[in-house]
Design goal:
heterodimer; A: 283 residues; seven-stranded mixed beta sheet; three-stranded antiparallel beta sheet; 7 helices; 27% helix; 18% strand; B: 256 residues; alpha/beta; six-stranded mixed beta sheet; 38% helix; globular
Chain lengths: 283, 256
Amino acid sequence: MSSYTFAYLDEQTKRMIRRAILKGLAIPGYQVPFASREMPMPYGWGTGGVQVTAAVLTPGDCLKVIDQGADDTTNAVSIRAFFAKTAGVATTTRTVEASVIQTRHRIPETALGEDQILVYQVPIPEPLRFLEPRETETRRMHSLEDYGLMHVKLYEDIARHGHIATAYAYPVLVEGRYVMDPSPIPKFDNPKLSGNPAIQLFGAGREQRIYALPPWCEVVSLDFEDHPFDPSKADHACGLCGAGDSYLDEVIVDDAGGRMFVCSDTDYCEGRQAQGHRGKDAA
Amino acid sequence: MTPLLSVEGLNKTYGAHLGCRDVGLDLFPGEVLGIVGESGSGKTTVLNCMAGHLVPDRGRVVFDTRAKGPRDVLTMSESERRMLGRTDWAFVHQNARDGLRMGVSAGGNVGERLMAVGARNYGRIRQTAEDWLTRVEIDAARIDDRPTTFSGGMQQRLQIARNLVTGPRLVFMDEPTGGLDVSVQARLLDLLRGLVRDMGLSAIIVTHDLAVVRLLADRLLVMKSGEVVEHGLTDQVLDDPQHGYTQLLVSSVLQA
């Protein structure tokens, strides 16, 4: 494909995005503004993640794209095809083979390594957005570490529901400094953010923000002493592979209320099945 | 005795418009100071300049901080000023909606300042919030209700609870009884007087209602056209006004 620059974006744009990424890595959790470009997909489909991926991709990379943990959903298939076409890089569905993984709403179950980059698609980068609508004010709150309001939200959760009902996009404190929205990953995945050997990059296209977690950086989920953070999941084992430690999707299988629970990470589930593990619903 | 708050030569103009000119005052610990004057006389400008909501053109606002002694508030960094704003200072707005988070329950409103200074125990935050709701005569059963469901008087009392929960030493009040009906005003004043006495608070109350300062204030400042025209003990100023404007103000109060 000679009609495209490598990985779609022109070199100056990639340079601008890389500068934002480097700044983000230098200040973990800080939202770096960047001049987000129009991408050939609608906002909300991962325009931020795609730009970050385009900026970090090299010809030798192997790309994996997941959406809600699955490799075979529309969003994942389209973005994978997009980079296969515009960058000509190898693609894979296997977590261990990938050097760059773009993700929406999940962190893979398989532990990542130091030679991997995880790129998150972020719809709303500002964790304080629904608490304080003024962007000028939230920026000042970040700069002054004025984070009492974040706990007010958790307080309201407990007051109303008896427990912290926030189940995804659960706010975290990065390296004891910046409060960060981890993108809408389930809170089950929050512990994997911390001390992760991989580079974690977050791109929000519509909101024009990039932020990052360097390898091995400390990420703490906010909580109360008497209501500690609980990375909960459905209380079942995977119906296909029998895994008891993975995040599960609930699938309705008939009109009579029948349901099964399956791993949301398809690569993890298939890998386990290939090793001979079987769940109770496996054919 | 070191004054808790000492203001010197405060000047503020809005373009060609005068806000206040050469305002100075000393507030001693445990004292309640009233600032009265007609609408547009610069009362609220002075209050906002002292509380750090407005930046004055000239002047000094020296507060006797707990840790570092007297410091000029205007030259502090913003983070220090914010810290002060949620620990040692409190600001009661005329309109409770300006001082409350209307989308957050009463308990969350009271607990916000506690959480902002590092409280991380839900049970204790809630207990403190319940205590304070009771102290301002709000039924503790309404702790999970939003302020939108409260009456005007209750909202104002909730705002006071939210401000006093961290045990501030200085409270700024901007027309705390404005917009409330007379019987609710009386109860609120009673409550405020009790709290000020019990907690040994120092307070600066801006109002145009002479009855309010008569009840609450130890000393009085009378402002007209951005300047202080008279100051002294409350009873002295109200019973024997010296300046022509003060005489007019006192004589224009309707006798019920």
